[in-house]
Amino acid sequence: MRTVCTARMRYVIGSVVVSAAIFASPSVASAQGFGVGARLAWVHADSNADVDAVRFVGGQIRLLSPRWGFEVSLDHHSEKFELQNQKVTETPIQTSLMLRTGGGKASLFLLGGPGWYKRKVEAIEGSEVLNVDNTEFGWHAGVGIEVFAGRHVGIHGDYRYTFLDFGKHDNKGLVGGLIPGHRGSMWTLGGTFYF
What we know:
Elements: H1 6-24, E1 33-45, E2 54-64, E3 68-81, E4 86-100, E5 106-123, E6 132-148, E7 153-162, E8 184-194
Antiparallel strand pairs: 1-2, 1-8, 2-3, 3-4, 4-5, 5-6, 6-7, 7-8
């Protein structure tokens, strides 16, 4: 079971809440829109082996104001391994709070939040006894940009670190103690239609 250092988490959560309150308080009542869209994601494991990124296809729901944003995304990837008689299906669900730098045609944003990463391994042929189904929890954080191509269409991309590891990494020193470790990363590129 994974544990999180509560003393460090208090500082992180406290600073995020205070920063968000300062930067976004005048814009809470002026929502920009609710949107639904599709996206592609390229996921990299944090590994020393030279492996290619795995492509996921998914979608997201976004709620935006000039300074805030909230996103719920679901991605899907399925792959068959005939020699091992296995089919592996991965379905991550991420919720992200976004802190946006402006409400113009292009807007940079910071994002972060929890994610639930479901993985299912099943036999292609044969017994269902060999099937394995598990869900892993992890935090993610990253940076991105959204460009509005008109009033109702946004094109966005971001880079996220996944499975953030607060307090269990080898980086020491002043800055190294503040930066969390991670077990993977992902690039996403998508489009959203806002109502």
